[in-house]
Write the structure tokens for this entry.
Amino acid sequence: MRNGINRRQFCAAAAAVGLAPSAVAQAGDWPKARPVRIVATGVAGAGTDIYARLFAEQYAKIFGQSFIVENRPGANGAIGNDVVAKAAPDGYTLLWSYAAAIAVNAALFPKLPYDTLKDLQPIAQVGSGGNMLMVAPDLPVKDLKEFVALVKASPGKYDYGSWGVGSGGHLSMEALATQAGLKMNHVPYRATAALAQDMMGGVIKIGFLAVETAQVLHKAGKGRPIAISGTRRAPNMTDIPTMTEQGFKFDIDAWYCLMAPGGTPMPIVRRLNEETNRLLQDPAMGQRLVALNFAMPAPIKTVEQFTQTIRDDIDTWSKVIKAANIKPEG
């Protein structure tokens, strides 16, 4: 555009005053024009992908339009986030991401190719919970206190895996290590699936995994869950206490989320927030989510409340990162 105003600024200004330029979808017509793309920041089969497809299926029924999931994993979610941050803010590109990809990346990386709080518009928080600390069946520990004692007795002996530097698994373990005075070696993987595969094969014996993945390993007899981060136990693994319950305070929840490019018209954003929250309160949907070990009941938040959650989590993770002296790769 001319006169020094770019398209994103124009769309944002128009949305702020309740107007929409011709290039931006009118709230009343959206999403009639074409299918909606949901960019998922996880690989196929990961929790991010599973929930994105589950909700896309429901959105299609609600809005009478196709919602197509496109997987763009990598860089702890930053690749998918960037795709959406640079997309047209017309309601036809959405983002399905997760807490570490949004809040941790903003806290850890000073030079992301996008501005988390300006280039991405929060829509809805989907669930809250934690990641599961798993150990190999032959590791002689049954709970977190035994784990801490074992590792503390041999500084630097044990390796642990996570799905990348700055991932929820990485920071959860570093927060524990800071509290308990542990010295461990971090082995970052490119994705949860790769870490799970190596844990299945006994290549690595300790790691934080998404609850859905941890449950698979547990059922296969390839891993023993000993603690979950966050504030609540997993619904289908209620016998596994939280880290806090076992004496090591950790009260930062993980979550999934629906977001959009910054400047997306607020009528579209609020409609998606309302429909997502309605789905989270639907009994039939609740049964499907609990079957996937999704933490229920999920918190129901307005757009503004979820936006504040992101700001608060960025601040909290910044403190964890500073305390553990975690540096981004590269």
